[in-house]
Here is the input.
Amino acid sequence: MTIEEFLGGPTFRYVIFPAFSAGSGILLKCATRHDSYAFFRKEDMAVGPQLMLTAALTYVIITTDRARELSRINDQLKATLTIKPLQTQQIGELQAAAYAASQPITLAAWLLLCLMLLLWGTVTIVKRWGWQSEAELKPMLGIALPLGLGVLSLMIVLKAAGR
Here is the structure.
């Protein structure tokens, strides 16, 4: 297996990358805690909202790259339309490419809206019902549910990025 096959494969995209993202967020929380406290606390696993925000921001970058590609195609189409006689086959190909490039951009607004609503809803749930005490999160509503939703958000964005 080549590195390209490994990085482009579903195991890396949907298992290793999301798990590494969650693990690195947890490790970062542990590493930045003052030395006088325990290295690890269960609250360190509460990285779900950060993963959701990372997924949303990553998708914004992916969408801007797609928008640049669409702009490039439109510029080519505009230039091709000025050539006489008209190159009908090339114009048709560029129109098809512009249509194909615009579809993911149209859907991006909806996916970003869903990601932001999911983030807002998750934060609200954690804030209202996720705390066991002033300093301790509940295992399910405060940690596991947000973490699972954060990993799922990353998987959805990675799936959408592949289109």
